[in-house]
Amino acid sequence: KQEVTQIPAALSVPEGENLVLNCSFTDSAIYNLQWFRQDPGKGLTSLLLIQSSQREQTSGRLNASLDKSSGRSTLYIAASQPGDSATYLCAVNQFYFGTGTSLTVIP
Amino acid sequence: DTAVSQTPKYLVTQMGNDKSIKCEQNLGHDTMYWYKQDSKKFLKIMFSYNNKELIINETVPNRFSPKSPDKAHLNLHINSLELGDSAVYFCASSPDQGSGYGNQPQHFGDGTRLSIL
Question: Tens digit of pLDDT for each residue in A24-45?
């Protein structure tokens, strides 16, 4: 069974810093990996989806990479802003979610 | 224009009661889902329906029964509520088949916070 882990559970950074969020999964036979953000009291908003045949996806200041052989994905956020503060979750094969990283960007 | 809408947003009820949560999507998607997010923010798939047919049922107690009258609606009925059912329940939809192999992102509702007294 697929297990997905996200470390760290929480992260605080000053505004303007570049940062990396990590997602690890146990079964490398994946079809897709998706990154979401969740704001307090809200649902999940899809940020990036990487197919198993792809190595990375980019959207604006966000870049997600996928390394199936090592069972890892990273979400890179450039020039962080206070509005980036949220919980970030990764999901493998659409359904298997990590426990998330709570990000706080300090003005 | 809310894409995926859930009602109610909050639900407080007594143990042993029966309750329903409604979900509607106006995106024209073929597949809808129910997830449970526990107090530690862990999100777990419960069900997925594609064109009103059950695709995934992830070891959910029989007290939980999804009902899909049409592909735009997926309601969740819960019988004999227990303390452990307290959680946030999220509905989602996607244009693919809901089997986990798709290449389309899911769209989530804002959740229903269920509290059992």
Answer: 999 988 989 999 999 988 889 9
